[in-house]
Amino acid sequence: MAGLPPDRPPTAGSPAAGSPAAGPPAAGPPAAGSPAAGPPAAGPPVAGSPAAESPGRGGRFRALTVQGWFRLVFGAFAVLVVVAAVVIIELLAHGRAVTNELELTVLPAQAQAYRLQGALADQESGIRGYGISGDVRFLAPYTSGLSAEAGAAAQLRTLIGRKQPMAADLADLEQAARGWRQAYAIPLIALARHGPLSGKDRTLLDQGKQSFDHLRTLFAVQNSHLAAAGARDRAALQRFNTVQDWAFAAILVAFLLAAAAVTQLLHQTVVRPLARLRAASRRVVGGDFGHRIEATGPADLRAVAADVEEMRSSLVAALADLDAQAHELRRSNAELEQFAYVASHDLQEPLRKVASFCQLLEKRYGDRLDDRGHQYIGFAVDGAKRLQTLINDLLTFSRVGRPGVVMAPVPLDQPLDAAIAALGTAIEETGTVIKRPGQLPTVSGDATLLAVLWQNLISNAVKFRADDRAPVVRINAAEEPTGTWQFTVADNGIGIAPEFAEKVFVIFQRLHVREAYPGTGIGLALCKRIIEYHGGDISLDTGYAGGTRICFTLPRVNPDGTDGAVAAGYGGAADAGTGDAAAPGQPGGNAAKSAGKADNADSAEGIPA
Q: For the whole prediction, is pTM greater than 0.70?
């Protein structure tokens, strides 16, 4: 049994043969072509990196998608795992072989050698006892020793096989044992059958003892050889354990280095391009539409970046078109402003002349005209006045939303008081009762427009009253969770049919003939324009019975002065103001001067529900 000699040449794949388990890898740049040789953060390209590859290989790397990079990384990890598994299996197999050789061969061989030596020692003791005493009972150790010797020798021969020098030691020992039995043991047994030995027979007994001492010498030689084999195997096992520890440490370090390399590779090839794409997209979202989005990284990220860049280019082109349209719109608005000025001054002068000269004709030549002539002059004067009123109403409608006025907090009681004062004559003549809260909230808006709003709503309630009861107008306000105030103006008039809930807010949509209810059909359309300009909405409550109820919302004013609807994310009023909207009492702003003359009030109300 030779064990594992110290000078045994390393096998292929063993730690000493330069396998991956032969210790931690040397520090330095990643090997050419390895995954860890990704594009460096700075400096010249490292050999094996995509930047240093040939154009064809670089093209293959550029063609990789994010999924392709992950497959490459996991493939490299799989190769590393396979190599580590092969090294570990080789180490475990070698360690198992050394351990089996020690535990299943050397140590059992030593035990059987001790058993063999003990059996021979029992034979020698039995022979000496039988020769000295002549008692046959002393031959029992000799007899049992023979069988024990045979069994131990057979098992020892099986364990050591032909391994030298243990096989030679066993052969020498068996040969010496046979010689001792033939020369001394068997003759002494024959002599002792006649009684205890004496005289020259005792001399033969002493010679047999001296011959057995030679066996003891062979015992020592055999034990020394077996002990040497055990020591060699233990030393080899100790060396293997040391190499195994270093190999496992090297594998761990290799995995850590591979993980770090993979992390850096993914950071360079996936994470950084994705972060650049995200930052560039956010920059464009932030308003920098001129910032070009570069396509870098894996193929699919480059495709996404190209799509985003195409969208940015399309958006820039659309914005350019929008700027052109806005410029055209500003020019058109300027022309409309000029037209409104002309309509306000130049167009009304001929109308005044027509009305004045018609009245002069009636006054000077009235005695020469018959009834039909007086009727024709009345038609002309009435048409001129109605056209003048229509022009004023159109001017008021067009001025809502013009730039120049900054929104400010307005207590709604103030414009409501102004509207009631402007409608004082009509309210007094009709006996109208207005029920209002003790205090209305403060909203952000334009006081003049809000007064026009109240004036139109109340004048409609006065004009479209029922014949059998006095008009009653109820004004209520409630705070909404969306950062707005909900207002309602309800009356007990003739009401509006539900099918006209949308039509009543369209300009010039009259639901009655002029002879029944005078007006231009612009009142509720003007109210809608004012409400929408302030960032609210207005509608007809189709479920209300016993009259008409108009509901509208206005943004709430926060303690810091901002609109509650804007702070809550529901939008707000436009940045434009009205500037020169007509105030209550002025032409186009006074909703009604009496119950029968509400020229700019909405004439859509009044269809029975």
A: no
